[in-house]
Every structure is written in C-alpha cells, then in structure tokens.
Amino acid sequence: MPELIPVLTEAEIDKSVTDIAKIISAEYKGCELILIGVLKGAFIFLSDLSRKIDIPLKIDFARISSYGAGTSTSGNIKLLKDIEIEIEGKDLLIVEDIVDTGTTISHFVDYLKNKNAKSVKVCTLIDKRERRETEVTIDYACHVVDEGFLVGYGLDYAEDYRELPGIYHLKF
Ligand code: IMP
Ligand code: MG
C-alpha cells in the first residue's frame, strides 16, 4: 500500500480558498463571471470556492481526459464533456484542481478562447511546477508545490482518495 504523507490540512486549504475567493470577488466585481470546473478533480474546490466568492456567478463543468490510470499526462487530450451554457461575451474562470505539465489546461484555455468569451483566466488549487512543459498563465493559485503526486480534496490516484478533506503526498 502506498503511504499518505500530509501536505495541506483542511484548515490550510480553507484559508487559502477564502483568500483567493476574496481576490476573485474584488477583481470580477460587475463582471458576468462563469466558473468552469474541470471534472472530476475540481469538484470539491469549485464547491468551496463558489460559496466563498461574494458576487453573482454561474457554474458549468467540462471533463477533459489526459491520463489513463497512471500518474502523468499522456499528452492525448480529449474533451469528454463540453460546457453547456452560453459563454459568448462572458468572463470565464477555469477552476482546476492541479496544474502539472500544463498540457491539459493550455489546451482548454485555447479551446475556450476560440469561442468568443470576453476573457478566459485560470484558477487552480495547486500549481505544481516541477514538470511544467507547456507555458501557461495561472492567474490564481491557492498553493504552489514543487513536486510529488498529491491526493485528497478532489484529487485522485486511479479514482481513490478524492474524499479526503486534506491533501497528501502519495508515496509509492
Ligand atoms: P497536466 O496536463 O500535466 O497539467 O495535468 C493536469 C491534470 O492531471 C490535473 O487536472 C489532474 O487531474 C492530474 N494531475 C496532475 N498532477 C496530479 C497529482 O499530483 N495528483 C492528482 N492528479 C494530478
Ligand atoms: Mg484535473
């Protein structure tokens, strides 16, 4: 069995999400904000973030596959579920669990930019920089980590561990 090493507690995550929500609330005041959660990993983060942002917003989801059951992006990006609400002229904020190589998010940013949104920005719970391959602008990040495969608070390894309230380094 792999070992779970604590990285972020529930309280630490709560504080960083509260802080980012305040910044987003101020910066998007008067905008038509749409949060676009990337399934499945971002479901808990989006749920907490959306309740802490204190301006009106809409929510939609996309599902993008990049992995099989391994621990790195295959580079083979597929849009498994598209967004459903009208985004033309709207301010989109992609809500992602973790940006690793950057491949998944940069494809998705390009895809949304081609749909005539007013703006497209990226908010990630975790910015993991060690393996970045594709340059991508991350507008909001709650936590920056250097390395390691992380699970919990929505992040999985082969669909396990999403339900953990904190974040852990999965040591094989
Ligand atoms: P990227 O395309 O390499 O940036 O990979 C991004 C996607 O891979 C994220 O949306 C996650 O779903 C997954 N991922 C990357 N690193 C981790 C990790 O440490 N734990 C769990 N999932 C990860
Ligand atoms: Mg993801």
Could you explain the architecture of this structure?
There is one protein chain. Helix 3 (103-113) links the parallel strand 5 and strand 6. Helix 1 packs across helix 2 (43-52). This protein has helices spanning 10-27, 43-52, 103-113, and strands at residues 3-8, 33-39, 57-65, 78-81, 91-99, 119-128, 140-145, 150-151, 167-171. The longest helix has 18 residues, at 10-27. The chain contains 3 helices and 9 strands, in the order E-H-E-H-E-E-E-H-E-E-E-E. With 172 residues, it is an alpha/beta fold. It is globular, with a radius of gyration of 15 Å. A 6-stranded mixed sheet has the order 4-3-2-5-6-7, sandwiched between helices. Strands 1-9-8 form a 3-stranded antiparallel sheet. The structure holds inosinic acid and magnesium ion. Magnesium ion is lined by residues 38, 41, 96-97.
Helices and strands, with pairings:
Blueprint: E1 3-8, H1 10-27, E2 33-39, H2 43-52, E3 57-65, E4 78-81, E5 91-99, H3 103-113, E6 119-128, E7 140-145, E8 150-151, E9 167-171
Parallel strand pairs: 2-3, 2-5, 5-6, 6-7
Antiparallel strand pairs: 1-9, 3-4, 8-9
This protein binds inosinic acid and magnesium ion.
